[in-house]
């Protein structure tokens, strides 16, 4: 930006004033040329974007968001399916732990103890550890957050480890507790110490929505140490509490419900009157037909298939409902919006595979699986699995069952079902052979314990040797082409070379390099 003649004129008598004026005008023009999204004008009129904190926004809207999301999951099939898809992919059969202290004897002992404890870990006595994972994940997605409380038990209770966990809905947290408390502060029922560390959770004794419990115990709450609580929710900002995952599309789900109801009512209304019989005298033709029941009382209610008679009716005219299009397109577009809000692929939300082929659905699932992987390792395992494992080892150590209260652990999330199992298996095999992945890693990615799988393989091989059986799948005795191994374990190089050439000429593999062939196979 160059100086104007007025700037030069002012500079002759007041150079400093001219310089300040020039710099101020330059700063103003820089702001006006900045972000279009920050511009003010007719196009952005009515756009409310408050700069409030995440805790302030959740404090105002959190409870209502939970209630509306739960209502949609109860009554809207698309909301229910979205929650189910997320839970099934995040948890599946369960995220399994494996002791990894480096001491094989200790690891086997801890794993066996944990396996027995999983069947008795639920304070309600109904689910095992993996069933609790499903319930907790469902609450995290549907309600936005969930609380898990440690319940220490007596040795006389007969549990494998004197510990159980209790799942509490977010409603148990007293959201009215906010403000300063001593040197710390309270944020919607969560107490923080002066340095910002969670110190306690203020919990109701009963669910506030339980009429009997609220009547008996009131709505009083008391603090529970934060070391006794695992608070599971997704942190999108530095907030203290979570919101339902479907919050961005709550209105879209409701609008779709209203649209479908309106469409159904319109169709029913059009189908109510099948025909109207009119008379010769046009003056006698009223807008509403005169219909009487068996007692001679006038009927003014339409119903499907009704044939109405006007006074002196002789001529019959049939009702022809107007055909309106666009219903399918609108619903498909709405479901695309809803699937994006839940971060679920449209095909998984609706089951509609008419618009995809093998390549596109495979590519679409890659990003979804990456998202699920991030949720498992960055959210669910640190917030729930790790605290429960720590509680378990501490309780087992206190009961004198293991020598240390701290036992390192490795977690194995459930495997993703392969779109093409053969290609995925070959990819794993090449990774192992090239040294970029170990056999234990591949087994763990299948959601199983590598030590248990290898021990099972060894036991199976020993049993086969004892019985003198040779299976075609035993790589110790048979090559991949089905030929017998020599006594020293070496295979026939000519046979192996032919097998490699046969693998190279696999038409399925060549189809991957040729898009036209791949689409034809799809």
Automatic annotation (TrEMBL):
Give the source's domain of life in one word.
Bacteria
Q: Where is the composition biased (Acidic residues)?
A: 498-513
Named from the GO MF annotations, one term is:
structural molecule activity
Q: Which InterPro entries match?
A: Phage_lambda_portal
Q: Where is this region: Disordered?
A: 477-522
Gene Ontology biological process: virion assembly
- UniProt name for this protein: Lambda family phage portal protein
